[in-house]
Description:
CATH topology of the largest domain in chain A: Peroxisomal Thiolase, Chain A, domain 1
Number of domains of chain A: 2
Mean pLDDT of chain A: 97
CATH architecture of the largest domain in chain A: 3-Layer(aba) Sandwich
Largest sheet of chain A: 10 strands, mixed
Number of strands of chain A: 16
Mean pLDDT of chain B: 85
CATH superfamily of the largest domain in chain A: Thiolase/Chalcone synthase
Oligomer: heterodimer
Number of helices of chain A: 15
Distance between the termini of chain A: 20 Å
Number of strands of chain B: 2
Amino acid sequence: MNRVAITGMGVISAFGQDTASMCLALKQGRSAIGPLAVPFADQLNVKIGAQVPDFDPSAHFSEKQLSLLDRCSQLALAAARQAVAASGLDFRSELGVRTAAIIGCGGGGMVTIDENFRRLYSDGAKRFPPLTIPKMMISAPVSHITMEQGTKGPAFMVASACASANHAIGLAFQMVRSGAVDAALSGGTESAFTLGSLKAWEAMRIMAPDTCRPFSLGRNGLVLGEGAGIFVLENLAQAKARGADILGEIVGFGMTSDAMDIVLPSLDGAAGAMRACLADGGLAPEQVSYINAHGTGTAMNDVTETRAIRAVFGRHADKLSVSSTKSLHGHALGAAGALELAATLLALRDGFLPPTANFTHADPQCDLDYIANESRSARTEIALSNSFAFGGLNAVLAVRNGAMLWQ
Amino acid sequence: MSDIESAIFDIVAQKAKLERSSLNHDTELSSIELDSIDILEIIFDIEEKFNISILYNANQSPGERGGFKTAGDVADFIKTQMNEGAQTV
């Protein structure tokens, strides 16, 4: 079994278009949630979100490329470029044949679907642009990444709603660990600030009208985000041999299915995924110091997740630091796990833990240390990152701080 | 019983697949097997029927049946929301 290093990371998020902007905002506890800049805001009941600011597609892609690229593909490609550049690897080589590309996305080309269907149903359009299908298909982002980066090994998308990115990264981790491939590009992407998508989310009655305050008393729902996070995963021995900058090591991955309800969370399912992750990594609960929680800010999730953490960690739960960075970058759905893994790795690298923003008062039902509002200096070796999706699809990753690999 | 209240009970009865006459203000939602998703659908049906928008956030009344105990609780909530200026859409 190979150990698996992360040697490259790229992020497009509501904080900005690089990892530095994310790292700074996490450290400052500065939330990117704000009024939605969309032309249809007057049709919305919930008018806030965490949008990627100032992303100019024409600065990244030619006009011809853009005719093929939904916004979710654009964000994924931009993040992948950062990740590959940071890794120092070139996949247009023998390595590319032994490299997988596995990306998570919840909804696919939502902007393309929304725009074109509106033209057809409402604006009297008689036809679609010729490449609408390959632009909107949910697998488009990974296809474009393989074409641009030259990876020729296994490539596919994973769709498991809000756990898509964690499932994708977990599968990539397993493939590198087993030796099926030598490297992988993996992560998640999502962009769903369309009228149709937002009205559908509103209809679920779980959206916060003001802000996202996970685990806090008075929390009243989730706030949507968007973005992409892409990582280069690599056989750790190979990474070490070439003197790569190792951001972190993925040490465990656990998955479960609740088999219970299409929207309600399950304590057993969440706890089972965390337990499976610890077992997979050969980790004792006491080795974990930080959990980047799923922490959506809904009444139900945060209580269930708190109880699940207590069930898994027992007395050690009182020593854990737990935060939900969704309070800072919003809930990026299929990209959530990727943004949260990036947040976790950046914080570990820079010796701090990111806070849960907008925290006002403790909820008696949520009784862990949630790093309220201000980041905290900490030297952390092992962290978990939780994703629990609608429909009971749970995926948990465990990572080790890259600076503490050799201890 | 007002027209609105009557319409709400019609929708609750329809959702629970019961005779309208077997339903009253004190009928417990658990006894007629309605869950939190049924509550969302009842509110949606009312919005569609009266062409209004009712502010309801499930996070403010969590639980298996959206924090509601009886059919009358649901009707009272919707009536209050409508009186407090539910928006015509």
